[in-house]
Amino acid sequence: MNKKNKLIAYLISFIIPIVVLASVWMILGLAPFGNNNLMVSDLGSQYLPFLNAFKRFMTEGGENLYSFANGIGGPMEATIAYYLMSPFNFISLLFPYNMMPVAVLLIITLKIACMSLTMYTYLDLHYRQSNWLTQAFSLAYSLCGFVVVYLLNFMWLDVLILFPLLVLGLERLWHEKKYGLYGVTLFFSILTNYYLGYMVCIFAVMYSVFIYYLKFERKPAKSIKEFTKRWRLFFVTSLLSGLSTAFMLIPAILGMLQTGKSSFHMQDFLLKPRFGFEVFSQMGLGTINYDIRLDHLPMIYSGVFVWLLAFLYFTLPIVPKRKKRAMAALLTVIYFSFFFEMFNTVWHMFQSPAGFPYRNAFIFSFILIKLAYETYLYARLTEDKTIVKKRLVLAGSTFTVLLTIGQLFLIFQSDSSYLLSNTYFVLNIVIVWILVFVLRLKFTKTSYLWRWVLLLCVGLELGGNLWISMKDIPFGNQEQYAKMYNEQEMLVKHLESGRDDLFRINQKIDTNMMGYNEINNGYNNPMLFGYSGVSSYTSTLDSKVQNTLTDLGLYSKNERRFSYVDESQVANLLLNVNYTINPKFIDNKELLEEQALSNIYKNSEAIGAAFLAPKALKEVSLERGKVINNQETILQSIKPLQNDVYFKPLTGIHTTKEVDKYQIKGKVTADGTNYLYLPNAVWDNVEYFAVNGKEIKTDVMIITNQLFNLGEFKKNDQIRLELKLNKKIETTDMVWVSLDQSKFDKLIHYQKNYASSLTWQKLGKLEGKVNVVDENQLLYVSIPYDKNWQVEVDGKKVKPKQIVGDFIGLDLEMDEHQINFKYRSKSLMIGLVITSISLLISFIGVIFTRKIKSKEKQIKE
To answer: In the chain, what is the greatest distance between 2 CA atoms, to the nearest angstrom?
Structure first.
C-alpha cells in the first residue's frame, strides 16, 4: 500500500465509525438529527454541568482552583482530574450553553472515531500487513462492549484512544529500546483520566511480562543483575511518566481521600466469584441496555466475528504453541480481574465500584481483537485452506455451544434483569453462521467482494448492538432543555447583577420543565448555571462537608451527593442562602418575582456570608442524626434563651397505625414553622404523605434522613399527618417541633448588627470588613474549613479554626478589621515541584541517552 492509499486508509478508519454512529443517532432522533438529547443518568446530572463549568472557566474567568458552585464551596482539582482533563472538552467552547447536549454528542462521536483511528494505527504499524479488512477490527475496538455500555461516561473514552498507542509503545520499548511513545502515552493516559490510567499501569506490567516471556523464553536471566537490566528501561520510563503527572495526581488523590469512598470493606477482598456460566451469553450482541447499565455482566462483546477468529486462533497449527500459551495466560489473568471479587476491587483502585462494575473491560476487548487479527493473518498464510474452513466450522460450533450454555444459565440461574430477549440469542446464532460462511469464502476466494461483504456485516452488527443498547434510553427533550436553560440563566444573572458579595441560591427546577424524561434532582445545578449553591453530586465530594450538612438537615442519599430539599431557616442563616428559586408557590416566603417556569423568593434570615457570634459557637459539636438538637444548640450559642428553647415540641402527639396507613396528630406550641424529622423512615415505602389533607411532595427523590418543612402554623393549631404505605415505616426517634418564630426573628434582627459580607476579588480571593465590639466574639464564616485557606487580618496571617462541624471560625481582637481570604493549594504546589523534577530528569536522560548512542554509532563507523 503506497503512502497515498495508506493515508486514505487511516482517514477511512476515522470516518467509518462516524458513519455508523451518525446512522444510529439519526434513528434515535438525537439532536441535531432530532429533538432528543442525552440528558440522562450521570451525563445529565454530572458530566454536562461539569462541562459547563469548564466552559465558564475558560470564557468568563475562573475562580482559581476553588469554586463555590462545587457543593457549598470546595477545591476543584479532584473534580478536574477525574472529569475534565480531556482535550476534547475544548469543543464545548464552540457551542452556547443551551446547546451543550449537542456538543456532548459530538465529543462522544469524535472520541469513538479516534479510538478506531488509533486501533488501526496499532494494527498497521505492529503487523505491517494492513488492508481494507483491517477497518473491521478497528471498528470492533471502537464499538466494543465497554464503549456501548459506558459511552455516556464519556470522560473515560480518552484512555481508550491512547491505549493502542501505549501498547505499541510498550512493544517498541521491549523490542527496540525506544521508550518515547510509551512514556508519552502513559503520561497522557494518567493525565486525561487517572482512574482508568491506574488500570493501564496494571496492564502495562502484565503485558510486559507477556512480552518478556515471548522474548526471553529461551534466554532466561542468569543473574538478578541481568534480570534487573532487562526491566530497567520499563520501570524507569513508567516511574518518570507517572511522577510527571504529580501536579494533577497528588491533589486528585488527596482530594479523593477526603471523600466517603476511601473506606475499605473486607467483603470486597474475598476470593469469591462474581458470576457463573451466564457470562458466555455476553459474547453476542443484545446483552446490555440502559436499565442494567449500573449492574451487569462483564462486557466481553467485541463483535461475533472477533470471537470466531479468537476461537480459530487456538486451533490453527500454524500458530506457535508458545504464543498460544502466552495469549491464553494473558486473557485468563484479565478474565480473573472480572471473575473474582478481590481482583475486581484491586483493579478499581481498591474500592468496589458503586455501579459500572467492570471498568477495565476494554483491555480484554483489545487483547481479543489483537488475537483475532493475528488469526486473520495466520489464516491467510495457511497454505491448506481446507484446514481453515474446517476449523472455522469448529469455531462456529464452539461459539454456538458456549452461547447456548450462557443463555440457559441466564434464563434459569442468573438475575432475570440480565436477560433482554431470547430473540437476540436466535439472532446471534444466525449471525455466527452467516459470518462462518462469509469467512470461509473470504479465505478461499480471491475476489475482493467477500471482504466488503464481511466489512458490511461487521458494521451492521456493531451498529445494531449499539442501537439495541440505547433504544430504551429515556432521552431528554432538547427544545425544552434549551428553553429552560435560557430562562434559568436569565434568573441567575438577574439575582447576581450588581452584586459582588458571596451569597447562595437554592434552585429547584421541575424535571419536566428541564426537558428530562427521568427524574433529575438538580444536584449540580450550581455548576450548570454558574452560581454559589447548596447541592452537589460528584465522586469527589468531601465527606466532612457532607456530614456537616446532613447533621444540619440537608438530605444525602449516599457518599457522592447532598441536596437542600426542604429549607430550614437555621440552615439558610448558616449557609447564607439569600434566594430560593422554585416552580412551586411557597406560602411563608417573600415572593420577589414570578416567571413562567420558576418563582424567586427572598430569605430574610440570610444575613451575610459571615457574622460575629459568641465564642461559645466554636464549642458546638454536631451530633450524628440529631438535626433539631444541633440547630437548637447553634441558636442557643448565638443568642442564649433563659429557661426557654427555640424549637418547641408539639404536644398531645398521638399515632394511629393501620396495615397500610399511619395517622399522627399533634398540637402546635408556638407560632412558627413546623419541622418533622424521621431519621429511620424509608420514604420509598410511603405512597402518600399529607399535612391536614394537603399532600406534601418533595423536590428531590428522597430515601431517608430528611428534615421536612411542613409550613407555618399558629399556636394551638391541630396538625394531622397522614401516610399511606406499601410497607411498614419506622417512626422511632421521630422529632416534631415548631420553631418559635418571634424568638428566631429577634435573633436574626440582633445578628444583623454583626453580619459581614465577603466580596469577590480576582483569582478567587475574598475580602470583608468586620467590627468586633465584644472580646467574647468570634467570626463565623459560611465557608467549609480547608487547610489551604490563607487568611490575613489587617495584613497579618491568622490561622482559621474548624467550628460547627466543618466551617471556618476566626478569633479576633476588639477593633475594626480588614479580612482577606486566599485559597492556595499546597498539594498542587508539591505536585508541580515533583512534576518539574521528573521532567528535568527525563530531559537529562534523553540527552544523555542520545549522546551515548551517538558515540556508539561513531565507534561502529
So the answer is: 105
